[in-house]
Design a protein that fits this description.
Length: 435
């Protein structure tokens, strides 16, 4: 669990997201509260539940990005769902539990990666022994082995062909659903998960070079050192205590509509979500998960409906309200230039791989921001996402021709921007399709 203070968290988030101070503060406090709860002892620890957050703001202004970055920073499993997905025809109440099952899967991935790193050093040693076995045989004298080891480490044997045996992960057995399990669709069970160990797993022989065998053997050896049961147990805990679920478009299910039409009623979806947010136990194929301490961040534009249109119980479970504001020209400028891995940095790096240097002038950045604001005003306000389409259009020609222009420097100034998107942006009918 991360020990970041709220201030440190905000500073970290500032590297990726421009503005939106209130939302950053709110998530930073929520993260710190988790750490605070972990410091408590005894029954009080279970009583403290997260103060879930409702983010209110137009599309493309950083709601998801803030939450996703927070999760990454904290090493926490993160899952995003659209609330409207559950109003579609064919969904039934218990389907919302799939969110938690998916969250656990994300947790498994995180824990497995951590563990793989922990055992990497050991796996390297074992992998080397196996290459030596393949090269000189398991019975060779220690002197022979050592002399080959030296050559191996010096890379002298890289191209030599060897035959090794690795576990067959291609999974010869089918996945299947177990019908009639309590909780409906508990998730897909994999027969090899159940019986793989008992049957000792399958091995397959591979002919390869010493060099190429390395990664295969290290992975094979790491997986042997991993204890899947322990990983699953830790992933369940991680999801329970540190999981973050982001529910987008909550405003679209906010009307109390009484269930018209063919889809599931919007109020019905709120009722289905409520047990998750209030705290319940969800069955997963790895075991039960309590949702009491999972942090829920709900988000929506609330142009038509208001947070007070949500069911009272749900309103009560989303006590922290933060507003995110629409982005303006200066925000776009900063998003283009100041954020880590900003679009400008990305394009510069991509073109550099072709030997082309991109030189954006200050007034080009101004022009890009202006065009984005103009298009958001005339077409539809899609927030910072607009920068993607604008940048792509501006750089289309260079991107196409880059391989022929290796060694050159391309200057992009405001004239260049205007020439490539400015005129187009004035034609609303045309730009609706292109930008
Ligand atoms: N304030 C910001 N600073 C930097 N980048 C931003 C900002 N706002 C949005 N972006 C970028 O725009 C894209 C869309 O943002 P995001 O996914 O956070 O939108 P959102 O507010 O969650 O909207 P929606 O509810 O429609 O998903 C992301 O790639 C994100 O990096």
């Amino acid at each position: 669990m991360t020990t970041f203070s709220p201030r440190e968290t905000v500073t970290e988030l500032d590297r990726y997201i421009i503005g939106q101070k209130d939302a950053k503060r709110a998530v930073a406090i929520a993260l710190r509260n988790r750490w605070r709860r972990q410091q408590l002892e005894g029954p009080l620890k279970d009583e403290v539940t997260p103060k879930n957050i409702l983010m209110i703001g137009p599309t493309g202004v950083g709601k998801t990005e803030i939450s996703r970055r927070l999760a990454k920073l904290a090493g926490a499993p993160f899952m995003k769902v659209e609330a409207t997905k559950f109003t579609e025809v064919g969904y039934v109440g218990r389907d919302v539990e799939q969110i938690i099952r998916d969250l656990v899967e994300v947790g498994i991935g995180i824990v497995r990666d951590r563990k793989r790193n922990e055992v990497k050093a050991k796996a390297h040693i074992s992998a080397e022994e196996r290459v030596l076995d393949a090269l000189v045989g398991a019975t060779a004298s220690p002197t022979t082995r050592d002399s080959f080891r030296k050559k191996l480490r010096a890379g002298e044997l890289d191209d030599k062909e060897i035959e090794i045996e690795v576990s067959d992960t291609s999974g010869g057995m089918p996945n299947f659903e177990i019908p009639g399990m309590p909780g409906g669709n508990i998730g897909v069970m994999n027969i090899s998960d159940l019986f793989g160990k008992a049957m000792g797993g399958r091995q397959r022989k591979v002919k390869t070079t010493v060099k190429q065998s390395h990664d295969m053997l290290v992975n094979d050896e790491s997986d042997k050192l991993l204890d899947m049961e322990q990983i699953q147990a830790e992933a369940l805990k991680l999801a329970e205590n540190e999981g973050i679920v982001f529910i987008d478009e909550i405003d679209k299910i906010a009307n109390r509509d009484g269930g018209m039409g063919a889809g599931v009623s919007r109020e019905g979806v709120q009722r289905d979500l409520l047990p998750l947010v209030e705290g319940s136990t969800v069955a997963t194929k790895y075991g039960p998960v309590k949702t009491d301490h999972i942090l829920f961040i709900a988000s929506g534009a609330f142009h038509v409906s208001k947070p007070s249109d949500l069911l009272p119980e749900l309103q009560g479970r989303l006590p922290i309200r933060v507003e995110l504001r629409a982005l303006e020209k200066d925000d776009f400028r900063r998003i283009l230039t100041e954020t880590e891995a900003s679009l400008i940095k990305q394009y510069v790096a991509l073109m550099q791989t072709e030997g082309v240097t991109l030189d954006f002038t200050e007034d080009a950045i101004d022009a890009l921001a202006e065009v984005a604001v103009h298009l958001n005003g005339t077409l539809e306000n899609i927030g910072a996402r607009r920068l993607q389409t604008v940048m792509e259009r501006v750089l289309d020609e260079i991107s196409y021709e880059a391989p022929d222009k290796s060694g050159s420097t391309m200057k992009i100034d405001s004239d260049y921007v205007r020439k490539h998107v400015g005129d187009l942006a004035q034609d609303t009918d045309l730009s609706r399709f292109i930008l």
